[in-house]
């Protein structure tokens, strides 16, 4: 597990790829849970017209590449919870 803390507030619009490199979706917004000023998860829309979203916790993020605007995960997309 990585000890690097990522700033999730500026990740709107980034693409998210799972551990296999498959596309999960695009970051819709950061989600705040434990503290009101630091997001601890991301809401990821799975398709262009999709109504379903996936919840990506900060602990599942392997790396964030600011140059290519891609977030790599350490889990597969089937392991991410979905919500409306």
Gap between N and C termini, in Å? 29 Å
Helix and strand string, N-terminal first? Answer: EEEEEEE
Helix proportion: under 10%
What is the CA-atom radius of gyration, in angstroms?
A: 12 Å
What is the strand arrangement across the widest sheet? Answer: 5-6-1-2-3-4-7
Overall morphology: globular
- Contiguous uncertain segments of 5+ residues: none
Q: Major β-sheet, in short? A: 7 strands, mixed
User: Would you tell me the structural class of the helices and strands?
Assistant: mainly beta
Estimate what percentage of residues fall within beta strands: 35-45%
Q: What is the count of β-strands?
A: 7
Summed up, the domain count is: 1
Overall average residue pLDDT: 89
Description:
The chain is built from no helices and 7 strands. By secondary structure, it is mainly β. It has one domain (16-52, 59-83). The protein has a 7-stranded mixed β-sheet, with no helix packed on it. A hairpin with a 7-residue loop joins β3 (41-45) and β4. It is globular, with a radius of gyration of 12 Å.
Topology, pairings included?
Layout: E1 15-17, E2 23-31, E3 41-45, E4 53-57, E5 61-65, E6 70-73, E7 82-83
Parallel strand pairs: 1-6
Antiparallel strand pairs: 1-2, 2-3, 3-4, 4-7, 5-6
